[in-house]
Task: structure prediction
Amino acid sequence: MKVLLTGSAGFVGSHLTERLLQGGHRVTGVDNYISGQHRNTELFLDHPNFSFIEADVSRGIPVPTGKADKFDWVLHFASPASPPHYQQNQIETLMVGAQGTQNALELARSQGASFMLASTSEVYGDPHVHPQPESYWGHVNPNGLRSCYDEAKRYAEAITFAYQRTHGLDTRVIRIFNTYGPRMRADDGRVVTNLVHQALRGEALTVYGDGSQTRSFQYVSDLVEGVLRLMDVSSLGSDLHGPVNLGNPDEYSILEFATVIRELLGEGLKIEFRPLPQDDPMQRRPDITRARALLGWQPGVPLREGLRRMIGDLQAPPGLREQPSLREQPSLQEKGRGTRIAAGAD
Ligand code: UDP
Result:
């Protein structure tokens, strides 16, 4: 398959690129490095099936035209995703969710490709329904500090559905819950990176508010597995277009999460309480009933195991850090459907 991936230099984009190349697919990555990293592109530049276009997808996606270049899939993953990053780039975040999504949809339409939108658990806002099923409409502040991201993704979902209904485009929408792993930016500002790096430096762990707010943390390889299964599911004729939650239902308060970090990196680490940011969701946990039924998917990497892998990668010598494994893996079809539920983490 030939895949165009926006946001290829981002944390999730780089892992998705790796798995697609392992599957023998051709990947054209697009990124403007607003929050992605050059080194995530450099990891793959020598691979014969990888090419890269530096561009802001909000302004257009400059792909070469011609029959030989037709894509089978357009995967739209470009966007700042950590609260500090999207709050520093509020207009760009709104634009990539709005114009960027429409440009990606138009590209898919013109090429006869299928389309996938990386949406987010943020569409549920500070949820009043717990855990969150896809049928929940959410509780979102339309103009607060998080609105540039939340409302951009809600609009992105709306226009994706509009293209599906109006043009019959083959679309998929995933809602990604908190995800972590190697290749996250050290200055990403999210709780996993902040606390892991603070602990490795022997500094106090910053907990916002009283730490009673909850999150559910998914290791990145579980997310990527879910994405690949959803791309592969077209032949089943199920309700493919509806959003699919991809996250780990194992729920932790932020204070419990800090305790896990202390257990792994030093019981003596202090905790420093800081003010709770505006509109910080108080609880978040995915209901993954739909992903289980549609994809035979559930997360397989428990939190401590995923953190050990991430910390091991950070502690590896510089030349060995964040390196992809590009050995080809059997394709999803060859592996066979229905037998791929990993050992349960929840
Ligand atoms: N948080 C924290 N300490 C930090 C960074 C974040 O306590 O150093 C909290 C934050 O207030 C939120 C949760 O951890 O309640 C998850 O925040 P993150 O930025 O990782 O992602 P979010 O799920 O809010 O988008």
Summary: Residues 186 and 194 are 7 Å apart (CA to CA). The pocket of uridine-5'-diphosphate is lined by residues 82-83, 178, 190-191, 194, 206-208, 213, 215, 254, 277, 280 (CB under 6 Å).
